[in-house]
Amino acid sequence: MESSILVTENLKAYYGDHLVLKGVNLEVPRLKITAIMGPSGCGKTTLLRCFNRLHELSPEGRIEGRIWLGDTDILSLDPIMVRRRIGMVFQRPNPFPTMSIYDNVIAGYKLNGMKLSRIEADEIVEQALRSAALWDEVKDILHRKGTFLSGGQQQRLCIARALAMKPEVLLLDEPTSALDPKATARIEELLVSLKERVTIMIVTHNIGQAGRIADYTAFLYLGELVEFGPTERLFTAPRDRRTEEYLSGKFG
Ligand SMILES: Nc1ncnc2c1ncn2[C@@H]1O[C@H](COP(=O)(O)OP(=O)(O)OP(=O)(O)O)[C@@H](O)[C@H]1O
């Protein structure tokens, strides 16, 4: 087994009395892409939101158990620090609408009150946009609004914004579900190139996408982690009947 970067121990997540994650034990391999799959409502988004401490911002959101990032229990850290180390990209591209492309990339620094010199900011913006495979398309229009870009470019801008903070883990919640096949392919290619530097966890409903890019896949069902393993093994020889039924389209 690879070395792990994020480990959950008996992780339970609630909305009020509703137990949504029922004691998940998961070890996320470092510098790999892990897909989280499962039928609608099984808790995929909730799991991602636990990892960067967003779940507890939901009214009545509550967590029990432990989440280790290396040897630190992230539930004992300041959530702001956690979000610097574990970035998140959402389903719909959400650049800050009033900000330029440039300011969007360094928004995390501004929001955290971290001062950057002009030279430092320029360097972070260029590096993050290059890492997100967007630099060549925007280098001459950095001061235009982020919302001026196409949907796929906006999503890569959101990835650049997350990468600018140099996170150890990047969480993506169905990042291509609002994009056309061409923009989707660019993002998939980008994620594969990024795993050299950052561990990636992606929620996807798209079995083809998980098969193309994910080294490992976790299958959740009704809040339980039913199966976790190398994607190829899980897809070709699932050990649990529910995984097999999901992969063959029985859960819709
Ligand atoms: N803000 C909320 N308040 C109360 N219950 C919620 C909230 N968000 C989600 N839930 C419930 O938690 C459960 C898990 O939802 P979650 O969004 O994590 O599932 P999911 O697997 O990501 O679903 P989908 O594939 O449809 O996005 C569902 O029963 C859902 O109704």
Automatic annotation (TrEMBL):
Keywords: ATP-binding, Nucleotide-binding, Phosphate transport, Transport. It comes from the Bacteria. Residues 6-247 form the ABC transporter domain. It holds the Pfam family ABC_tran. GO terms for biological process: phosphate ion transmembrane transport. One of its GO terms (cellular component) is membrane. One of its GO terms (molecular function) is ATP binding. This is Phosphate transport system ATP-binding protein. It comes from Thermodesulforhabdus norvegica.
